[in-house]
Amino acid sequence: MNNDRRSEFLNALQVFVPPGSFVVDDVVELLGDEEIWAFYVRPETIFDADSVYERIVVFLATPRRLVLMYTDTSYEMSSAGELVTTLQAIGFDSIKEYHVVKRRHLEGDHAGELNSLTLRLRWGSAFTQDLQPAACDDPACTNDHGYVGVTTNEDFQMFLDERHDGQYFAQGVDFVRTLVSILGQR
């Protein structure tokens, strides 16, 4: 049985990049002859301190790995602009755990319907620290009590919300369901 969705993926990607784009070449080169079992493609707008970037986000599931691709339109290094593509591939055997959080409408005509979905994957390459000043129970105390914090290991998080993701919500939910099914078989 042929599960390969490569042609569907390339058609979805070419909605966001011009025909003959090197972005397509980059992802095809990374994949080689691997089949694409699931994919999710969507545009994003990224804001930082002094710039706004248009980004194309691609998530792919092949028989053996998860591929993440981010392509930004950047004017940082060239006033004419350039496409900056980052590709990351993670073997499914490296993924240590995953969490799926589903939120559903509580009441009304849409009661029980999914309204947001969060997927978190952990494979051990990135850690986040959230530090805050420590304190004691004395509100008048001015001593330095150091810091308290939490270190978490979430290498990847995908958040989908029906209100914000609009036409891309259902496609993202389908991708997460397929990915979780693949991970569940490992």
Automatic annotation (TrEMBL):
Protein name: Uncharacterized protein
Organism (species): Arcanobacterium phocisimile
